Amino acid sequence: MEYHEAVNRLERLRRLRPKLGVGTTASLLETLGDPQEGLPAVQVAGSNGKGSTARTLERVLREAGLTVGLYTSPDLNDLRERIRVRGQKIPKHEVSRFVEVAWPEIVDRSVEGDEPTFFETFTALALWRFDRSDVDVAVLEVGIGGRYDATSVVDPVASAVTSVSLEHTEILGDTVEEIARDKANVTPAERPLVTGATGAALDAIRADHPVLTVGPEDADVYASEGEVVSPTASKLSLVGPDWAVETRTPLPGAHMATNAGIAATLARQVGDALGVDVTEADIAAGVRNVHAPGRFEVMDHAPLTVLDGAHNPDACVKLADTLERLEYDSLHLVFGAMREKDHPAMCRALPAADRAYLAEPDVERARGTDTLATVFDRETDAAVDTFDSVLGALEAACWAADPGDCVLATGSLYTVAEARDHWTRSPRVVRTDSHGAAREALASADVPRAVRTDRVDAMVDRTLRFHVRRGRAGELVGRMRSLGGTGAVSGIEAADQHVEVVLTGTLDQFRDLVRYVRACPDGRRLAGRVNRALGIGTDETPAAYPWHDGTAVMGILNVTPDSFHDGGEYDTVPAAVDRAEAMVVDGADIVDVGGESTRPGADPVPAAEERERVVPVVERLADLDTFVSVDTRKALVAEAALEAGADMVNDVTGLGDAAMREVVAAHDVPAVVMHSLSAPVDPHHRYGYDDVVDDVLEGLTERVLLAERAGIDRSNLLLDPGLGFGKRAAESFELLDRLSEFRALGTPVMVGHSHKSMFEAVGCGPDERLAPTVAATALAAERGADVVRVHDVAENVAAVETARKTRGE
């Protein structure tokens, strides 16, 4: 079964209304071998805040060294976002396998009139995936209520109710007290329920269950937001009975502080249940580095552009309180909501907007713009405009806003998901110069088999691939075919999911397509991205950095005793300086100084020790006629090295730590954003890539957005797909072969392949890898690499020059 077929079957279950009880879920799980049995799990329930709490808890537990499964809903653009292990989405082939195994039972139950709902089936998929991945603990975001929710099929070791407000009254009850009592049924048998509820809701919960309260006052765990450091971070204080944490959070707002406190308290309960020490440092790092797309997510700074999935009056009040703390002139509000929501109350709760841009998300439940316009006219003083799409509304708002204004997109996570396409959609050129390459490109985009067979022979010209919404995808393919080119669309049928479109044509045909797209109300941004991907109308970058003038060579200088290739050879300052000078003579454009090995099984080095290794060397190299890079994943080391004279940062964790992003932004220096599953490399941490380039590119896209949120200009970023680093040899070679696709993000690309174990696949042992390293350098340069990172500079400089000569340069 192909992935699009599996997804379409699952999507058909959405038509079923929620029902009470866990019997159907339990029955489905029984056919799967009861994967929930013996699985340590945490349930996170609540009216608002459960998603951000679940994500924060997951990140804290990962910082503590646990393998964590995370189940959340809804997704933004891809069903697989709902199920993650170690931060990675469930692979497509796992979804297909589950549907193959579970569908007969689903069909049987439908005959009996007890077909599982979409949420029940997806809950079973999550638990099945977690069992197959042997996770240490599963974090489950409850769907509706608590007592009858599908996630209540587990026996939790810890649970929380984040907050309680009126919602789903037709199922949960007509009062806050009734809803609170329903949600509180997730209380575990051996530990108190953690909650941020207050007032009547808290009283109702406390009457039946032991509780541990979290909040800014009169609570068992104190949680308070402090100074707003920037639009993307604020200080946070958490104080428990025998622990305390001072950190920063990327999720601003007093309610988010409470959610962080709930997550921290749950993490300590999980540690107690599993016999794992969850330290204050783990909590601080987890809270600081949580990533929750669509939850007060700042996407731009001029104008200030915020995406937030507030979808009920209570969430809108909290959003308004948070936004009030930031400075801006006029407010441009992009709004779309679901039919069942209280739109007048949401309007009144939102911050006062100067202009409202109303749109209908492309989902069946969306409220029409005519109704919303009437509501806004009655409830606000905003000038109101309506648009055919969320992207059209967003582009109009961004176009009209001055740099000092604020653009806020909200009302539903569906609205936010479509708005986010403005930043995440990056058309990329893919190779279809052979029948096999064309068929692989179409299959990777989930194009149905019959369409692949029909179109593959026509994929002979330039080919672009990118994601759009289903309606626009068919329109683009039709237009390209009318121009004489061709194209195909993913077989995924859901309107609210990303679908891939693959377009092939001549450069003139693409120019005509761009003119058509630019004329569409929501097409300016996409037209520009297509032009950039094809190199139409782009200017050469001035040679400000070594990689702006052809492929630069970065020489590796390990000042460590245990690096995999040359550890111990240059771990004194004189030896390191001599080595750096020799590399520069051999033609190195950059010298990369590293004080910690990231080879498989390497022991982490304390920051102070790494700093003592690196800084004296960097200081001695400051006057050398070369660019000096510091290879570190620690913000403290990077800060010290930059102060000592380093010119850039090379971070194997891809700027995963918010503190590192702050350092890079403050110093306004280039930084390498590398993709890695773990650092140091964990040889047991593997991921079942469906298409390694797709998956790595998606991960790097999110890291680039995080960097930009922190104030790092995209022109200062280099992308490294991370050959090795948890990838199998075949996957590393595929990344090398398809290197040009990473240009889709508009940044330079670096390749680090020197002497790596991937060359075992060509029969070369640890001491025999110079020749394949040089060969790979030539291939990387030919495929457009901006930087190659190598140990043996002279040989690889020759390879780069050879590639350059073949291009006639």
Automatic annotation (TrEMBL):
Sorted UniProt keywords: ATP-binding, Folate biosynthesis, Ligase, Magnesium, Metal-binding, Multifunctional enzyme, Nucleotide-binding, Transferase
Swiss-Prot/TrEMBL cofactor(s): Mg(2+)
CDD domains according to UniProt: DHPS (cd00739)
BP GO annotations: folic acid biosynthetic process; tetrahydrofolate biosynthetic process
PROSITE patterns found in the cross-reference section: DHPS_1, DHPS_2, FOLYLPOLYGLU_SYNT_2, PTERIN_BINDING
Pathway connected to this protein: Cofactor biosynthesis; tetrahydrofolylpolyglutamate biosynthesis; Cofactor biosynthesis; tetrahydrofolate biosynthesis; 7,8-dihydrofolate from 2-amino-4-hydroxy-6-hydroxymethyl-7,8-dihydropteridine diphosphate and 4-aminobenzoate: step 1/2
EC numbers on record: 2.5.1.15, 6.3.2.17
Reaction it catalyzes: (7,8-dihydropterin-6-yl)methyl diphosphate + 4-aminobenzoate = 7,8-dihydropteroate + diphosphate; (6S)-5,6,7,8-tetrahydrofolyl-(gamma-L-Glu)(n) + L-glutamate + ATP = (6S)-5,6,7,8-tetrahydrofolyl-(gamma-L-Glu)(n+1) + ADP + phosphate + H(+)
GO MF annotation terms: ATP binding; dihydropteroate synthase activity; metal ion binding; tetrahydrofolylpolyglutamate synthase activity
Location of the Pterin-binding domain: 551-801
Biological function: Can complement an H.volcanii mutant strain that is thymidine auxotroph because it lacks the two dihydrofolate reductase genes encoded by hdrA and hdrB.
Protein family: In the N-terminal section; belongs to the folylpolyglutamate synthase family. In the C-terminal section; belongs to the DHPS family.
Protein name: Probable bifunctional folylpolyglutamate synthase/dihydropteroate synthase
